[in-house]
Design brief:
By secondary structure, the chain is mainly alpha-helical. It contains eight helices and no strands. The chain has two domains: about 150 residues, Up-down Bundle (Four Helix Bundle (Hemerythrin (Met), subunit A)), CATH 1.20.120; about 35 residues, no CATH class. The chain is elongated and about 60 Å long.
Length: about 210
């Protein structure tokens, strides 16, 4: 029974700021990687164009395609088949992963649990592998061979898997941050993500 000096409800637990930042950074990197995968897939031979993809169910598809083509011609809408555009995606993702590694190392120093420290160390290792795979993908995209595109797609799929493995491997104090992230995705609206990754373009939201 609560005394007159004891509150009926426990005070809300605050989430560690460094964990919030880490998960947001990892999520942003995952989103950009996913956008790159979508862009790479849509740029494959035989895949329908972006305009066709967007305007397929429009009220006036012909007019829709015409307007999008005009936007693309005027530079208002980035082309998804441009390898340079994909490279911008990947370099942005690599930069964010470097930030995630720094945040994970900082969080590891503030957590006393050896198990959680090991999980963060594994996360740092996965991000290191991912940065190497992103670098390999950038090199592969400079080659016009179909096999190079297949290699890039495989590496980027692995990068995306690494992100989710990292998030799933965190427990304890880090787990509360994971729960905070999953329950607070509204804190990363499309506008903010677009500001954080201006090169993302249409692909992030497909």
């Amino acid at each position: 029974m609560a005394t007159s000096y004891q509150p009926l409800l426990d005070p809300p637990r605050t989430k560690p700021l460094h964990c919030r930042a880490l998960f947001c950074v990892l999520s942003l990197a995952a989103i950009i990687t996913l956008a790159s995968l979508i862009a790479l897939r849509t740029s494959s031979p035989g895949y329908q164009s972006v305009s066709t993809l967007i305007c397929d169910r429009a009220y006036d598809p012909v007019s829709c395609v015409s307007q999008l083509s005009e936007l693309s011609f005027n530079g208002a809408m980035p082309s998804m088949i441009d390898e340079d555009h994909l490279t911008v995606h990947l370099k942005k993702s690599s930069m964010i992963m470097r930030n995630a590694v720094e945040m994970a190392n900082h969080a590891k120093n503030e957590i006393n649990s050896p198990r959680e420290q090991a999980a963060l160390a594994d996360c740092v290792e996965l991000m290191g592998i991912s940065m190497g795979q992103v670098a390999d993908s950038i090199v592969a995209l400079s080659n016009l061979a179909v096999s190079s595109r297949v290699d890039a797609h495989t590496w980027l799929s692995s990068v995306l898997t690494n992100h989710f493995t990292c998030l799933d491997g965190l427990e304890g104090r880090s787990s509360c941050c994971r729960n905070w992230l999953h329950s607070s995705r509204h804190l990363l609206p499309k506008r903010r993500l677009a500001e954080e990754a201006p090169s993302c373009g249409t692909t992030c939201w497909l």
